[in-house]
Amino acid sequence: MSAVLHLERVSIALEGRVLIPPWSVGVPPGQVVTLMGPSGSGKSTLLSYLGGTLAAAFRATGRVWIGAREVTEQPPERRRIGILFQDDLLFPHLSVGENLAFGLRSTVRGRKLRAARIDAALSEAGLAGFARRDPATLSGGQRARVALLRLLLAEPEALLLDEPFNRLDTMLRADFRRFVFGHAVAAGLPVLMVTHDWADAEAAKGPVLELGTAADGMPVIGAARVPLAIDAARAAIPIGGDWSPSGKGADR
Amino acid sequence: MTRAAARAASHRLAPLRARSRSWLRCAPLITVALFLAPIVAGLLGTLLPAFGWLPAIGGREFTLGPWARLFSAPGIGAAIALTVGTGLVATVLSVVLVFGLCAQLHGRTPGRAGRGLMAPILAAPHAAMAIGLGFLIAPSGWVVRLLSPWLTGWHQPPDIATVQDPYGIALTLGLLVKEVPYLLLMTITALGQVSAARQLEAAATLGYGRTVAWLKLILPQIYPQIRLPIYAVLAYALSVVDMSLILGPGNPPTLSVLALRWFTAPDIRMYFPAAAAALLQLAIVLASILLWRSGETVIAHLGRRWIAQGARRTRLAPLTRIAAAAVAGLAGLGLASLIDLGVWSVADGWPFPQLLPKHWSAHTWTRQFSMVAWPLETTLIVAVLASALALLLVLGCLENEQRSGRAATLRALWLLYVPLLVPQIAFLFGAQVLLTVVHLEGSLIAVIWSHLLFVLPYVFLCLAEPWRSLDARYARTALCLGTPPRRVFLRIKLPLLLRPILVAVAIGVAVSVDQYLPTLLVGAGRVVTLTTEAVALASGGDRRITGVFALLQSLIPLAAYALAIGLPARLQFHRRQAGGET
Questions:
Q1: Check: complex ipTM more than 0.85
Q2: Sign (positive or negative) of CA dihedral A183, A185, A189, A195
Q3: Which fold has domain A1-80+156-252?
């Protein structure tokens, strides 16, 4: 199951203006790669592209792989790439349990078994007995945890984090960070996070890259200028272990 | 600070303001009085004769005689079955097709071109659409001509009942052509209030395709907002008179047509079974709405289980494609029907199976001009006055609501829908009796009032949303500058909301022109509009003359819409953002 999320010379432009320069990166399973950048720089757009929901106005090139499976041309629902958004996007017409059931894969059959899986997920997240609750009655931190649980129950093969900690207050933020990274690493998922908060990058304990602007005004992605006590050695571009860039998909 | 300024302003103009306030406070009351009281009285006026009580024509004791008479009438069972069958099938199909199309388009709204094509179908009166569709699918109509003789081998129109068929298929088709665009418009409006795109994106990252996600996530969220329009369509489809007269079978006809036939029979004693039939019609509508409501509960329950199963695929997927194609087909039929009306009105000899008339001429138009002029004038007067009156009352209610700070509740909205949910025939009988008592029967005023019952709800529904969502800071700013509320209303709110106001009036005109039964019954045959004339001509008249009346009838609402959209641009050409959203 565990496979590398690999971006091969992915670039995105809007009306001729380059937002993301051609970028290649491999994210190994169980590791979090962080892409830093100011708001409006196109970080979220990159995640939309990887998730397959890029708006038609953008022009994107490059290829995206999960292990040996290329997902570049696949519709979003076939990619098995989960995105955790800034908003929890719990469906307001469904209970907490139904939201999770919506995420849980249908290969888990039988109402009892499904309910058991959902209850187990909830109690493990400290939300035991919440299945019948209306999402609107939950606190922000609780909603955020349900959103991640829902995503994990869908058994994605890669996880994208779109500033998911932004909306939470400082106290909850550290808590939820541990929760997200803990689950992602335990599930052996490659994780790509975009954020503008250095604390997020630090907590991720992985390589940190920065989307910045070169002298000629073009955007560049390079190793982050680390302002905090991040181990500089980990700030290098990781190379995916089991992925070989040539040979696959050569028919294109 | 706002309050203080407003109070200061009101001191200077105290008398004026007091007067306008008192009138305003009465606005909701007047509206309800004009609105609900006559309906209740009308229903009573139908209820009593249905049980034998109508002293004016000799009914002085309560009996079940009218009901015995009703149920012993030949073909009554078939009439009831036809009524329930066409009404339910048309409504279920309309709803399924609209939801199917939306699931297929997954939340994207149709483009400008699509909406432009829908507009004439939405605007066209039901009667005109029925007449055009009748022309189109008749044995000698365009559809058969298109296939003859190369495919069918027919050189004469075939002897098949494609219109007024005993199963009500043509009637159901006519209802679909009109109601599907209406429900689609309501659904698109409701879609604007949920963040469909974000939720579909979230569902996609969980592995859901957009069609399934739309059905599981978006539909349950918007359904409560389109419930009332669906009930209105259900009530309408079950009790429609003009479309049934034109497209429905004659013997037995639908229940409402049967009631109308007895009601206008020369034998005045037929009034009793007619009232019973009208009451039965009301019972059928109420029972159907209850049935629909319980169906909603069952489907909601099953739907929740379906959602909780987590299935990413659905066998419904191919159905949504069929639904989308069917909606496109219905739109094509609707547009072709309207074009057919125009072609017939300028046809001069059109032998079967030629696709187009042999000669074209404006003879029918010029020769019919004197015939058309009077009903046209009446139609316009009634439509404009009913819409203007509705606008006054609605603006009064909305302004009162804003100044008193009390928003109308959902229950109030249901009250507004009463005339759209109660079959017209059930209270118009009684209303006519009432009007006879006050000597207003057959007067223009009475007809305008009867139209107001149906115009007002639509004008309110159109205006309430833009009115309430107008940024309150505009009015507050003006009040702070010392402008009295009356002037704020006239100089700030009205100009800012000019576009939605004009659109609401145009819709009011369209609804008024649509009314057949109120004009016929309340007008007592003395108030003749294009609508009553067109329906009368449709039964066996000259197609060219019928075409002139029906086309003209369709052109009035279209012209009203064109004016509503064009006028603000002309009046406020130097203001880019004024005029409000539509």
A1: no
A2: positive
A3: Rossmann fold (3.40.50)
